[in-house]
Design goal:
3 domains, five-stranded parallel β-sheet, FAD/NAD(P)-binding domain, Enolase-like, domain 1, 25% helix, six-stranded mixed β-sheet, alpha/beta, 27% strand, 11 helices
Length: 411
């Protein structure tokens, strides 16, 4: 049986590794529109910040050789013929398959695609993006940068650039940062803290109206308010598009059930997979590394003869790179809100039927693991959640294991 993967990201690499470790000895071909060995996108902000690239190739630079893979790199898959069991790339390469693992990932979405024609404008989604930005910073001696987008990826990029020593301005169309990752109160708290701590100049409720370019090279941006910001680097981080068109004809992702099958010969995982939420959320694109790896393991187990089912995705996120306080959240912000806050911390859970329906933690991560476990276990917490949130020292989990009274509140 010949297996082909579209993509070489975290889902595809985990899938292939599990197959080989499970004894699969037939032909495996992996295709990617990039030239790299499998890498972790989680490490990209560290590289942009100027840190060594030691861990970016999370399964080793020799992955293809070690696992006996035929790698078709710098090949963009443009069409998949499911009836014939073959695909075609932009260069004209045709590859047949018996089973296809479709994990094509996603790419940056540009509200103004024409900006890409200006030298100094980049997306921020792939290792190739990061390498191009890194070269540009060094070659042009960049000192000032603008990031458009105040969500998770935009803040990752802005904080990395600031850590590298650049002067950074962030332009966001909303009145608060991380609006998809927090509720209104938590987002305002995180925004205020970032303004105080990060050294980034924030332009909120603002949009870029035009670019100032000279001889095709970026020199600055002008906001709709008329404010001009000098910069020779612009990173656009306003969202992403799943690379699903080769399989479905559209970019909205690929809906799959718990078997992860789009059809009997095609399995789907990673950023392109539309899956059900594991607890109470809607079906959607839950593009996180833990979800992708879990999907890959289920798919590999079934290729190897198992009958596994994917348990569903979680929308858990944590922002903590180059930041002296993290922002952690998961679930839906609906139901009864229980909150603890002081000048350094914001902690809130949303309860439905006494169980955690969603949560937001800003300021530290001492309770993050404990709250996450309470969330996924569906344990009733109505009687003690207020005390847990008020636990400054982070002792709640250990005290619960020893059946001790909650820790005394120490603000």
């Amino acid at each position: 049986m010949k297996i082909v993967t579209v993509g070489t990201g975290m889902a595809a690499a985990e899938f292939v590794q599990q197959l080989r470790l499970g004894g699969f000895d037939d032909e495996i071909v992996m295709l990617s529109d990039e030239p790299h060995a499998p890498y972790s996108p989680c490490v990209i902000p560290y590289l942009l910040a100027g840190e060594p690239p030691n861990n970016v190739y999370w399964k080793g630079r020799d992955f293809y050789q070690r696992y006996r893979i035929t790698a078709r790199l710098n090949e963009t898959v443009v069409k998949i013929d499911r009836e014939q069991g073959r695909l075609r790339t932009a260069s004209g390469l045709v590859e047949g398959y018996d089973k296809l693992f479709f994990a094509a990932g996603s790419r940056s979405w540009f509200p103004r695609p024409e900006w890409l024609g200006v030298e100094g404008v980049f997306g921020f989604k792939t290792l190739s993006d990061m390498q191009a930005i890194d070269r540009y910073i060094e070659e042009q001696a960049v000192r000032r940068a603008v990031v458009v987008g105040g969500g998770f990826i935009g803040l990752d990029a802005a904080l990395a650039l600031r850590h590298r020593g650049l002067q950074v301005s962030l332009v966001h169309c909303h009145e608060r940062l991380l609006e998809r990752m927090t509720d209104a109160d938590g987002g305002r708290f995180a925004t205020d803290q970032l303004k105080q701590r990060s050294g980034i100049a924030f332009h909120m409720s603002a949009e870029v109206a035009s670019l100032d370019s000279r001889n095709g090279q970026l020199h600055g941006v002008r906001l709709q308010s008329g404010t001009a910001i000098e910069a020779s680097l612009l990173i656009v981080a306003t969202g992403f598009k799943p690379n699903s068109a080769a399989l479905t004809g559209v970019e909205g992702g690929v809906a799959v059930g718990d078997d992860l099958l789009a059809d009997p010969r095609v399995l789907v995982a990673g950023d392109v997979a539309v899956t059900r939420h594991a607890i109470s959320g809607p079906d959607g694109l839950y593009a996180t590394a833990p979800n992708a790896i879990a999907q890959a393991r289920v798919a590999a187990a079934n290729i190897l003869g198992g009958n596994e089912r994917y348990a569903g995705s979680l929308n858990a996120n944590i922002l903590r790179k180059h930041l002296d306080f993290p922002v952690v959240s998961a679930g839906l912000f609906e139901g009864e809100a229980v909150t603890f806050t002081n000048d350094r911390l914001f902690r809130r859970v949303y309860l439905q039927d006494g169980r955690i329906h969603g949560y937001i933690l800003v300021g530290d991560s001492r309770l993050a693991g404990y709250i996450y476990n309470l969330y996924v276990s569906r344990e009733s917490v109505a009687a003690n959640i207020a005390g847990i949130l008020a636990d400054i020292r982070g002792e709640s989990y250990y005290r619960s294991l020893m059946d001790l009274a909650p820790a005394a509140i120490n603000c």
